[in-house]
Amino acid sequence: MHSLAINDVVMEYERPRTHERVLAIDHLSLTIENSSFVSVVGPSGCGKSTLLFIIDGLVRPTVGSVTIDGRQITSPGRDRAMVFQEASLFPWYTTLRNCAYGLECQGVSRKDAETRSRPLLEMVGLAGFEHHYPHELSIGMQQRANLARALAVDPDVLLMDEPFAALDAQTRELMQAELLGIWAHAKKTVVFITHQIDEAIYLSDRVIVMSARPGRIIDDIPVELERPRSLDIKRTPSFTALEERIWHRLASEVKHGGEMERADRGVASAP
């Protein structure tokens, strides 16, 4: 059975000032197998993050449904956890307390929640930083703590919305490699949103390419590169060929998306 099924989802919303109806996602269907890693790429404004919010149950689609192992999603649940671009750690909590927070919200005692959180902090490379506060951590370390917090509640599906976008290039690559190691250990189903084509390929079993708004799937590309993967794989011909295929699929969509964004702001397109 597929772990996650997105069934003919349509998402419309209303602009607050003009009350114009906008079609964000148009009849999108996708199945994601249990324990697989799937990345979604597409132009800005194509509905990638909206799709993630629908899967998490934070937003209800206008039409269609999302199910996990046949159970329809209607609200956030313990079987899903979200990792956002910003770590959003509580500044008054230590790394350990931040990691344990989700478990405490589920009724786990503070002592047990912290006991369960310690090995996760070790797994993400934060052993020895349990009692540091967020301002004492680098941005990369904060995002590691954010990931540990999501894993602590033991979700079936991990949803990641451009979690490495704020990192410098070197830290971003190191975090990609660390994430693969964590995923190989935890074996969660991951849906990963990114603008970086190389990041999507390096991490994923499949790369889903979305069109400019309204978001549709225009390609579903299997990544048949051998695992485990080192960062050196990014310089191989097979990897480069996948990059070129995805970019060619995206190029016209990115241009179209930019034209739509300019039109939304009332800016004329170049002749």
> Unreliable runs, pLDDT <50, ≥5 residues?
265-271
Strand arrangement within the widest β-sheet reads 6-7-8-3-9-10
Q: What is the strand content?
A: 15-25%
Number of helices: 7
Care to give the gist of this entry?
The chain is α/β, with parallel strands linked by helices and 271 residues long. It has helices at residues 48-56, 95-105, 110-123, 139-152, 169-186, 197-203, 237-264; strands at residues 4-14, 21-32, 37-41, 63-68, 71-72, 80-83, 157-161, 189-193, 206-210, 217-222. It has a domain at 88-154.
Set out the fold topology.
Blueprint: E1 4-14, E2 21-32, E3 37-41, H1 48-56, E4 63-68, E5 71-72, E6 80-83, H2 95-105, H3 110-123, H4 139-152, E7 157-161, H5 169-186, E8 189-193, H6 197-203, E9 206-210, E10 217-222, H7 237-264
Helix pairs in contact: 2-3, 2-4, 3-4, 6-7
Structure description:
The strands form two sheets. The protein has a six-stranded mixed β-sheet with strand order 6-7-8-3-9-10, with helices on both faces. A four-stranded antiparallel β-sheet has the order 2-1-4-5, with helices on one face. The protein has helices at residues 48-56, 95-105, 110-123, 139-152, 169-186, 197-203, 237-264, and strands at 4-14, 21-32, 37-41, 63-68, 71-72, 80-83, 157-161, 189-193, 206-210, 217-222. 37% of the residues lie in helices and 23% in strands. It starts with a strand and ends in a 7-residue tail after the last helix. With 271 residues, the chain is α/β, with parallel strands linked by helices. Helix 2 crosses helix 3 and helix 2 (95-105) runs parallel beside helix 4 (139-152).
